[in-house]
């Protein structure tokens, strides 16, 4: 902080920052502000920077460092994203229709327990609302590890809990715990792209962000209590912790990434607005790199990544064009102004590799507000 008292706009905007992610598809907060007040990119940038500062201060009051939440908010192909599927009809029979509460103890008991550090996980949950019965049955048959055979009567019959940032061991524990419930259908590994992941991305709202013993949830007004759904958090040792929606949804919501949805356009626009008002319209920037950077990528530690992505043999102009196309289709994270005044961010992109599988790569980028160009810095 520049001063102990209130910050001026100049002080705030000059202060280094790091925003892990910006999401809009679970909320109309950012879009509504822009449209209702006819905000310029400069004005929206100021609001987002101020709101992010307010969020970090709010979390500080709870004893939570915003910097500690990166692993829960930014996908990592080395960490698992697991979808647990339940038959709401079965759970409703024993709970008079309160199936979300009925199955909650089964999956909550399997959340990672503290060992080294504080576990952080984004949690999304809800009924599957997109896709036809036949479409959902087909993608489930391809992607779900069933506990027993299951026939979809209607998509909304399938209730899903989606948990991020899990090790293989943690994922196994979570699955085993959920499988003890009679309504459990099976699980799907959603770490990589799939048609099921697309459907879940459209269907599931953010339920909360788990930070150790705390479950952060969005609430409508200051002073409102969290856990409006009445899930048994306290009984299992968790503390529901409220954060107002205007701060939670843009900055603490998790986006299930799938290139098939095409939903990243507004997210990326809002993310770039948070980075710099000059970057707000860079939906498809032409990426460039210095000759030295091109040589470094060819011969340095990033060579294997370029080879796996099928880009190693490209000339510098061809590589710049290929990376520009990937970034335009990717998702943006890790937006930051560093202590040297550089505006940096990363794009997560999916590239089809051998056996028609997709692999996620991280592209490091630097935005120059003077000429509004974007430079490639890393590829791994």
Which residues sit in consecutive blocks of at least 5 with pLDDT less than 50? none
| Total number of helices | 14
The general outline is globular
Distance between the termini: 33 Å
Structural class: alpha+beta
Reading the helices and strands in chain order gives HEHHHEHHEHEEHEHEEEHHEHHHEEEE
Q: Strand order within the widest sheet?
A: 4-6-2-5-3-7-8-9
The largest sheet, given as strand count, sense and whether it forms a barrel, is: 8 strands, mixed
Q: Helix proportion of residues, in percent?
A: 25-40%
The total of beta strands comes to: 14
Strand fraction equals 15-25%
Radius of gyration: 21 Å
Question: How would you characterize the overall build of this protein?
Answer:
- This protein is α+β, with helices and mostly antiparallel strands and 380 residues long.
- Helix content is 36%, strand content 24%.
- The chain is built from 14 helices and 14 strands.
- Helix 3 packs across helix 10.
- The longest helix is centred in the first third of the chain and has 21 residues, at 41-61.
- The chain is globular, with a radius of gyration of 21 Å.
- The two termini are 33 Å apart.
Features:
8-stranded mixed β-sheet, globular, alpha+beta, 6-stranded mixed β-sheet, 380 residues, 14 helices
Question: What is this structure, in a nutshell?
Answer:
By secondary structure, the chain is α+β, with helices and mostly antiparallel strands.
Please give the structural blueprint.
Elements: H1 9-14, E1 17-19, H2 29-36, H3 41-61, H4 70-73, E2 80-87, H5 88-93, H6 99-108, E3 120-127, H7 133-143, E4 145-146, E5 158-166, H8 168-178, E6 184-189, H9 195-203, E7 206-211, E8 214-219, E9 239-244, H10 245-252, H11 264-275, E10 287-288, H12 291-299, H13 303-308, H14 316-329, E11 331-337, E12 343-352, E13 358-368, E14 373-379
Parallel strand pairs: 8-9, 10-14
Antiparallel strand pairs: 1-11, 2-5, 2-6, 3-5, 3-7, 4-6, 7-8, 11-12, 12-13, 13-14
